[in-house]
Structures are given as structure tokens and as C-alpha cells.
Design goal:
Mean pLDDT: 82
Shape: globular
Number of strands: 0
Largest sheet: none
Oligomer: single chain
Radius of gyration: 15 Å
Distance between the termini: 36 Å
Number of helices: 5
Low-confidence stretches: none
Order of helices and strands: HHHHH
Length: 115
């Protein structure tokens, strides 16, 4: 039964990322936290979401939905934010990581509902 749950959650994470461009981490992090600590769950989630995002971006690019020139500024600032996030993840207590993640999930849910 657990294997089926992991398969379903993994497909849901990919589906969310493909449809919304984000959101897979909201599925993967709680799933990973069942087996590992908070920091490792968040770091692993990013490692999982990266290839899913790249594949989604390639498909959207070839369909003509996205342009590299439009995305470039976001990529640069996103990379800078990622480096800052890596540094902060090792310094923030797991309790605060969980709280920040919960706030982010509530904010993302709210944005999805009001748009």
C-alpha cells in the first residue's frame, strides 16, 4: 500500500508542476518527512523538482508557450535566491523551516483560490 501511495504522490507532484509550474514540493516534502528529517526532506524535494521543471520547460518551449528571453531575468534571480536558500537552510532550525513551509503553503493556496 505504501508503494502505491508513493507512486500516486510522485505522479501528483509531476502533474502539479506541469499544470501550475510549481506545487510539487507541497506533495513531496510531507511525503519525504515520513522517512527523513526536515532539512533533508526540503533539499531532496528541490533535487526532485529540478528535473521535473526542466522537462516541463522544454515541452513548453517547443510548443512556443515560453520564450527564453522572457524567462532569463527570472532564471538569474532564481539562481541567486537558490544560493541564498542553500545557505539559510543549514542555519535555520527545523522547527522554523516547518513553520515557513506551512506559511508558504497557505499563501500559495490562497493565491490559487483568488485567481
Amino acid at each position: 500500500m505504501k508503494k502505491i501511495l508513493f507512486w500516486v504522490c510522485s505522479m501528483l507532484a509531476g502533474l502539479l508542476n506541469g499544470l501550475l509550474g510549481a506545487g510539487g514540493g507541497m506533495v513531496i516534502v510531507p511525503l519525504l518527512r515520513q522517512k527523513t528529517d526536515t532539512r533533508k526532506a526540503h533539499a531532496t524535494s528541490i533535487a526532485i523538482i529540478l528535473p521535473i521543471s526542466i522537462i516541463s520547460a522544454i515541452f513548453y518551449y517547443y510548443k512556443g508557450v515560453v520564450s527564453i528571453s522572457d524567462a532569463a531575468p527570472y532564471i538569474i534571480w532564481g539562481l541567486i535566491g537558490a544560493v541564498i536558500g542553500i545557505i539559510l537552510l543549514s542555519k535555520i532550525k527545523p522547527k522554523w523551516i516547518r513553520k515557513l513551509f506551512a506559511i508558504l503553503m497557505i499563501w500559495a493556496g490562497w493565491r490559487l483560490m483568488v485567481r
